[in-house]
Description:
By secondary structure, this protein is an all-alpha fold. The protein has one domain (2-147). The chain is 85% helix and 0% strand. The protein is built from 4 helices and no strands. It has helices at 2-33, 37-70, 78-108, 119-147. Helix 1 (2-33) packs antiparallel against helix 4. The longest helix is centred in the middle third of the chain and has 34 residues, at 37-70. It is elongated and about 55 Å long. The model has no long low-confidence stretch (mean pLDDT 92).
Amino acid sequence: xxxxxxxxxxxxxxxxxxxxxxxxxxxxxxxxxxxxxxxxxxxxxxxxxxxxxxxxxxxxxxxxxxxxxxxxxxxxxxxxxxxxxxxxxxxxxxxxxxxxxxxxxxxxxxxxxxxxxxxxxxxxxxxxxxxxxxxxxxxxxxxxxxxx
Length: 148
């Protein structure tokens, strides 16, 4: 049973982190192929929201099964701390930065946010979110290396 759970953790982590990296490519294509940045942004936002939910569910599953396998010794493993850091970044983006970006969009209406007085602030916070997401992706690579 323990081999099954370890292998399942590897599969789930791979799907999760692979999805994070795939989102980098997908968003590039979305903004390249869809003429309206507003529509492309909304689609990308929905996909990022799904990845946030999937990531948190995956993190919870991996932590729970790892506790079942290793007990409290798991708290000393690098795997736990990588999952913890990635989850913190997800929560920071989802509950901190994303609502801020959404408020800039709403306050800019009827214009697009990049055509409004909020363009500079939106760009700054979008950059912060992008850097945070890239850190998530890199930490995810380390997680895959450690979890196997």
